[in-house]
Specification:
132 residues, alpha+beta, two-stranded antiparallel ribbon, 4 helices
């Protein structure tokens, strides 16, 4: 659901605002409802509205817990500091024995209260912050 909403908003902004500036040929409906191919007109207002619609998603704790300020990850809906003083590290994947992959495997581990997994689990590197 979360990724579908982001994908839809991004696609709306790219197809309405970006098509003309890139000269991209897209299929769209004309006034009669016929499918035609051509350059879509630029619609900055639709692009801005599409982006505004995903802001609540981007501000959700699941995004903000990793894409936030500070040198550590956060957890939970209250965005509390990750236990064990896990640091971000220079590349965003922790440091020494406190690497993200030490606990977060490449897949979810079965059982109650186990760390979620995903291939290459990490925070964004400090040099590429998403939220200031």
């Amino acid at each position: 659901m979360l990724s579908a909403l982001i994908f839809t908003a991004v696609m709306l902004s790219h197809t309405s605002a970006g098509a003309q500036s890139t000269g991209q040929k897209q299929a769209h409906l004309n006034a009669r409802g016929d499918r035609v191919f051509g350059t879509l007109p630029r619609d900055d207002k639709a692009a801005a509205n599409a982006f505004e619609s995903i802001i609540p998603v981007l501000r959700h704790p699941r995004c903000m817990n990793c894409h936030s300020t500070g040198d550590f990850p956060r957890q939970g809906d209250d965005s509390h500091r990750h236990p064990m003083n896990v640091p971000r590290g220079p590349e965003g994947d922790g440091v020494a024995a406190l690497k993200c992959s030490t606990c977060h495997q490449d897949h979810n581990v079965e059982g109650m209260h186990t760390p979620p997994g995903s291939p290459d689990w990490h925070l964004p590197a400090p040099k590429i912050p998403m939220i200031c």
